[in-house]
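Contributing new complexes? Match this layout with 4'-deoxy-4'-aminopyridoxal-5'-phosphate.
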Amino acid sequence: MPGSYLIKPVLDGSYKEISHGNGIYLYDSEGKAYIDGSSGAVTCSIGHGCKEVIEAMNEQAGKISFVYRSQFTNQPAEELADKLAAMAPEDLNWSFFVNSGSEAVETAVKIALQYWQEKGQGRKTHIISRWMSYHGITIGALSLSGHTERRRRFFSHLESSPAVSPPYCYRCPYQLSHPSCGLKCAEELQTAVDRTGKEHVAAFIAEPVIGAAGGAISPPEGYYQRIKEICNENAILFIADEVMTGAGRTGKAFAMEHWQTVPDISILGKGLSAGYSPIASVIVSDDILCTIKKGSNLIMSGHTYSANPQSAAAALAVLKVIEKENLIQHAEKIGILLMKKLQNLKEEFSMIGDVRGKGLLLGIEFVANSEISAKPFPKDYNITSLITRLAQDLGLLLYPSSAGIDGREGDAVLLAPPLNITEVEVNKLVSILHQTLKKAEEMLTVMGRG
Ligand code: PMP
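Output block (do not edit by hand):
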């Protein structure tokens, strides 16, 4: 459509226009209601139309909307940084604000490189990442992302490649099971370090629960503890990309708390401002900050809109709502309920191979027939898009994810409703999901099960 502001990412998609939202519901311009079962892209974690956030943003807009970060600081950004330091574990005390998850990942990489330069170890430049991961869409962040479909077209510009398998127990790359596997997927990090030479490795980056590229893969017990040990033993920084998992999404402020693991750098995005205004934060340890301070005393990064007062005010208000309404504890509790209901669906529908995740970041992986095997549907069935389209028609929004070690040979969706979803609303969501799966089964019976 000429004049449309949207360059549509999927050219054959017919996009409806959303006119407004309220709580967990979105309404299109024709008046149809949708349960926002994925909080958009796992973003709108306190739902739509939150009065406290709107008021805080209006108030800030009346004071100042923009100051340039290298000329001035501003009060909401300072207060937000203090709040994040109080929320984050141990000495993760220093925030550097940018506008998106991708920018935050790029900034974290730069900070890691700078840290080793200031320590006189400038050869430590390599960042190790995992297959089946997503760290962002810009060239640097995409370089680290282990998602072959997203990488393929831009391969010539990608700087590095993921080197380590994901902790994907449903399709263990070694065909082992936990705990007798001895966490071979974690030990792979040591192999990758040995191959590169630890004198060249600056950091390891991972999403605590694999979201966009893995349908909420949560690792087995002991995995991150072992990863952190390997990082310590080899003098490698551990970067936790909590863009999707942070700010309460998994039932903890930071998902790494589930594994009692404190990274050297933690990245928040998405849920930090719950979609009210773009902001992301790179939170670094005292050691990293002091080392850079003693050296060049300048983090060599930043964007025009870094630490934007308007976005900082929105994020601060969001964190206050999360705190006041105990939404992190609520997410943990209601996530257990939703997970139980998904497990019931798994019993009923043989097209569900696995349900997984933590808190309110849950995933469903689809297979041709779980009673026979974990074989995925043929790729040309486009099951992920079939399910998300059927659900949307019935009034439920799901996030299309993917499955399979390289993200090509499997289908998955994410369920990640706003953290303040009630039990009644969970029942409604599951009822629509049930209708969706019934409809999909009917269609698949006609098509053949693959
Ligand atoms: N890291 C993770 C773990 C993500 O899930 C995403 C977004 N899906 C990003 C980074 C990139 O964030 P953004 O889209 O805000 O650039």
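Reviewers usually confirm one structural detail per submission. For this one: The chain has a mean pLDDT of 94.
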